[in-house]
Every structure is written in C-alpha cells, then in structure tokens.
Amino acid sequence: MLLGLIAGTLTTIAFVPQLVKTWKTRSTKDVSLGMFSIFCTGVLLWLIYGVLIQSVPVALANGVTLVLAGAILSLKLKFG
Q1: pTM of the model
Q2: If you count DSSP H runs as helices and E runs as strands, how many of each does the chain have, helices first?
Q3: Which of 8, 13, 24, 38 has fewest C-beta within 10 Å?
Q4: CB 30, CB 75: distance < 8 Å
Q5: Are 5 and 59 a contacting pair, CB within 8 Å?
Q6: Mind listing the pLDDT tens digit for each residue in 11-41?
Q7: CATH classification of the domain holding 13
Q8: In a 3-state reduction of DSSP, which class is residue 78?
Q9: Do the Cβ atoms of 72 and 25 come closer than 8 Å?
Q10: Structural domain range at position 49
C-alpha cells in the first residue's frame, strides 16, 4: 500500500507545475485539449475503479489527479 501511495503522489504532483504555469501566464497555447479531455476521462474511470475495488491508493491518487488535470482542462477551455 505504501508503494502505491508514493507512486500515486509522484504522478499526481507532476501536474502541479503545469497548473501553476497555466494559471500565472493565462496561456494554454501548448496544452492539448484532446489529450487532457481523454486523460481526465481515463482518470475518472480509474477513480471509479479504485472506489469499486476499495483501494485507497488508487482512489485517492486518481481523485487528486482528476482535480489537478481537470483544473488545467478548465483553464484550457476558459483561455483557449
């Protein structure tokens, strides 16, 4: 379980620099709408899967990742 929490933490915080940069610059020119749309859908499905199998590392990591990636997707839609 610890290994899963560490892996989930690292892959989740990987989105923080992109989110901060996008928020500060208000530029989403280099952010792919298609990639983030597909990615957020996949992460949502992983979150649902984690809940269904009652896996805290899978559900927690994907829940936080969905919030971060979803924020980037929202900024892409807002700032286009």
Answers
A1: 0.85
A2: 4, 0
A3: 24
A4: no
A5: no
A6: 899 999 999 999 999 999 989 999 999 999 9
A7: 1.20.1280.290
A8: helix
A9: no
A10: 2-79
